[in-house]
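Run: sequence + flavin mononucleotide -> complex structure.
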Amino acid sequence: MNDLRLITGGFFYLYIIMEHTICYLSKQTEALKNSELEELFKYILAINPTLNITGALLYNNNFFLQVLEGNKETVNELFATIRKDKRHKNILIILDQKIENRIFENYEANFSIMKTKADIERLNTYLSQYDFENKYPKNLKTLIEPFLL
Ligand SMILES: Cc1cc2nc3c(=O)[nH]c(=O)nc-3n(C[C@H](O)[C@H](O)[C@H](O)COP(=O)(O)O)c2cc1C
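>> structure
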């Protein structure tokens, strides 16, 4: 009985600590104004730390590129909400997998929206970890290139 409890507890612990990442590209819907974008960014920066979600949201030429890192259940739930959001469309998942370590953890902003050099360097590190160069077709790379160094 004790053994069973230990095993169940072990699985439960693993489940709790399992970390996951989702990275996607999407296109802004036409209706989105600058002020609405600002509102959205403010909202995200306030909410994500409370969910212990790290990552980045980059915006360039009507496209969003977002990286979410965190507890698997939290990431999946958040992404389920995000993908239903009418403010963007054509969502293209680039990565959806478990991770050993978060790339954006210990980063001063933890969750970042600004397109600073440091943000982009993080994104490069993140993508290179997954053999991005060899894994994805050229047309996808072309879409992501504006976000990279
Ligand atoms: C491109 C994009 C990225 C988003 N990223 C996040 C995010 O990281 N965290 C978050 O809480 N909401 C994010 N949102 C907003 C959610 O889609 C949603 O509006 C918000 O979570 C409120 O959902 P609710 O009204 O169902 O509570 C994002 C929306 C868009 C369009």
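>> summary
The helical segments are 2-17, 34-47, 72-84, 117-128, 132-135, 138-144. The chain has one domain: 19-147.
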